[in-house]
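Worked example (supplementary).
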Amino acid sequence: MSTSERRLGLLERLAEGPVICAEGYLFELERRGYLQAGAFVPEVVLEHPEEVTQLHRQFVHAGSDVVEAFTYYAHREKLRVIGKEAALEQINRQALKLAKEVAEETGTLFAGNICNTNVYEFGNEEAARQARAMFEEQVGWAFEAGVDFVIGETFSYAEEALIALEVIKQAGLPAVITLAFHQAPETREGWSAAESCKRLADAGADVVGLNCIRGPRTMMPLLEEIVPAVNVPVAALPVPYRTHPEEPSFQSLRDPDYEDLPSGRPFPTALDPFTCNRYEISDFTREAYDLGVRYFGVCCGAAPHHIRSMAEALGRTPHASRYSADMSRHAFLGSDPALREQNVAYKSEL
Ligand SMILES: [Zn+2]
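After joint prediction of all chains, the assembly is encoded as:
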């Protein structure tokens, strides 16, 4: 292939402009009725592969430049909890295959994924060894599937993220590493966002930043400290929920209008009233872009309309933009001269 025909890799695309990576597969497939909240294990790739493929396609249609294999939480520890460790390799290989097919059919990037192990514990050598072994097996399968890069995400221990990064780099692949900050503006070992990301960038991460847990409003202050601290592209993938300084994480949100929640809090199945609208996602995207963020996405809770808003805020017109709102043709609220005056005049009565 000549250079002009060759598909650009992640780093080449980032050199040309921002990259969007849609996420949020767990929550969206849970809402659609194909994945169980709680354990949150992506068995759907085996049980309903067509639903995963469709969601990959819908996110690309909405503007994602990346198809991320749905291997989030498809690791040894999560499968141990549900008694299905035997299916570990099959789930990973199947998730990678589904993502690769959509990436190939759409000309998008194909990403592998690893995440917080829930095994890692600060200062515990044995736990660090176990976490490394879990990363090695998953990165191995991703490498064999031919991923363009690997995303290591949702780490609340920066040390665990550093181990994940080492494993990805040993495989010779580009690494996008994103941390998850809970209520405290520091990692579980007590490092600031700027310090953690700087250490990750210094250790060879190609992209560093934040994903999950915090919504746009409470992720932004952390991004403001990360961008000037590193010399690699910064990633921002908030959850699309209205977190605020008193309740900075989506797990800490409380709903004053509904008390009978099965888990005592809106997370994870009753977050609907806190969902950001698409315009809030555009605002966040523009603000983060102006700050210097270059790798974008929306995490748990994201739906395709959020990704379309993000893409449009970056000046793109994904296929889904053909259906972006045009209220000028609304029978009552519109302005098109073809509309009936009796309805337009009734607008204030709606
Ligand atoms: Zn998430």
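Two points are worth noting when inspecting this output. Residues 212, 239, 299-300 surround zinc ion (CB under 6 Å). The CA atoms of residues 129 and 136 lie 10 Å apart.
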